[in-house]
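Supplementary Methods. Inverse-folding protocol.

Structures were first reduced to a discrete structure-token string of length 192. This string, shown here, constituted the complete conditioning input.
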């Protein structure tokens, strides 16, 4: 059985948990205390030199990190990855966008507010702008279609759900994004 090293406070770790649960892949969960610096401890860095969770370890000792790489590996040949090459590429488009334009703003602001007691008025304005831009782009897309790729739940939805669900903890009012609100409910109905 594989072991997921992670912390449920981390959206990146939740992505891996959601996919494993959705696909009924058995796993052992090994808690790593992210806020307490557990991912930087030398025993964990011996597994993942990047010092970040999530990471998964297979029974034969192979280790894989990076949430989206893990999701793609676990979900291969499953309905969470489109068979059509174009839709597959569009899914990847969202996954790469999520890592650079979405996760880096919303997750960072949330971490500072939730775990480092940063107040809403102290948020980095550039990150606020980046987060608003990301949510705005998602809203425009979701007004037109119910899921990010094609007409079914895919890894693009799982990846984007992970931190969008926590956007209010990063100081973003989701009332301003009704299509995102409806999509969050649709996704949570499938993965929780
Ligand atoms: N791009 C990576 C980001 C991983 C990441 O930033 N992990 C955070 C938790 S969400 C972490 O382990 N931080 C530990 C630290 O900075 O000490 C992924 O998607 O897995």
């Amino acid at each position: 059985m594989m072991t997921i090293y992670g912390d449920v406070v981390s959206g990146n770790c939740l992505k891996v948990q959601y996919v494993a649960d959705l696909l009924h892949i058995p796993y052992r969960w090994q808690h790593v205390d992210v806020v307490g610096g557990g991912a930087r401890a030398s025993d964990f860095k011996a597994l993942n030199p990047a010092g970040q969770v999530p990471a998964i370890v297979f029974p034969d000792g192979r280790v894989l990190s990076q949430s989206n790489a893990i999701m793609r590996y676990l979900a291969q040949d499953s309905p969470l990855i489109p068979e059509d090459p174009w839709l597959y590429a569009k899914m990847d488009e969202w996954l790469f966008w999520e890592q650079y334009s979405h996760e880096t703003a919303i997750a960072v602001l949330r971490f500072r507010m939730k775990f480092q007691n940063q107040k809403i008025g102290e948020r980095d304005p550039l990150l606020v702008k980046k987060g608003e831009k990301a949510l705005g782009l998602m809203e425009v897309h979701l007004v037109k279609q119910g899921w990010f790729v094609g007409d079914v739940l895919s890894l693009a939805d799982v990846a984007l759900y992970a931190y969008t669900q926590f956007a209010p903890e990063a100081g973003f009012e989701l009332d301003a994004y009704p299509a995102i609100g409806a999509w969050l409910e649709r996704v949570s109905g499938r993965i929780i």
